[in-house]
Design goal:
Layout (H helix, E strand, L loop, with lengths): L2 H7 L4 H13 L12 H6 L4 E5 L8 H13 L4 E7 L3 H13 L2 E5 L2 H5 L16 E8 L1
Parallel strand pairs: 1-2
Antiparallel strand pairs: 2-4, 3-4
Helix pairs in contact: 4-5
Length: about 140
């Protein structure tokens, strides 16, 4: 995969972003309330949609995840779509509350719509649809 393909398809490496933000936040007294900065943030300007799957599971990473979503939207992204397994209500509630506190609106897709989505990858039927949450995020 060459650099042009990555740019066209919108590849974003979460690990690089989180590491970059951790390094920058450790050198200041920030509490995560300001936007991220650096090379990865500049790359965010190239994309319109942030699509993530199964990333809401570790409470310790939620501040970084929320910062990434908010920063992406502030850099001109239209919306973020997250599809995630609903493992732990406390963790998921913390994620949504943190987003709202940072000015990010969250619209959950109703379960009946998720249940009726087409199954276009027949080999992946092991995940119960009742365990999946899909949310669309925008700046309030």
């Amino acid at each position: 995969m060459n650099d042009e393909t990555l740019r066209t398809q919108g590849y974003f490496e979460w690990g690089d972003y989180a590491e970059e933000q951790q390094i920058e936040s450790s050198s200041s007294s920030s509490t995560g309330s300001s936007s991220g900065s650096g090379a990865m943030v500049e790359r965010m300007k190239e994309f319109e949609v942030l699509l993530a799957a199964d990333v809401v599971y570790d409470r310790n990473e939620i501040p970084h995840l929320v910062l990434a979503v908010r920063t992406f939207l502030e850099q001109g992204g239209e919306y973020a779509i997250f599809a995630t397994t609903y493992r732990n209500q406390v963790t998921f509630d913390l994620f949504q509350t943190s987003l709202k506190q940072q000015g990010v609106a969250v619209q959950e897709i109703p379960e009946n719509i998720i249940y009726n989505l087409p199954r276009w990858l027949p080999c992946y039927y092991s995940q119960l649809r009742s365990e999946v949450r899909i949310a669309i995020m925008t700046i309030e």
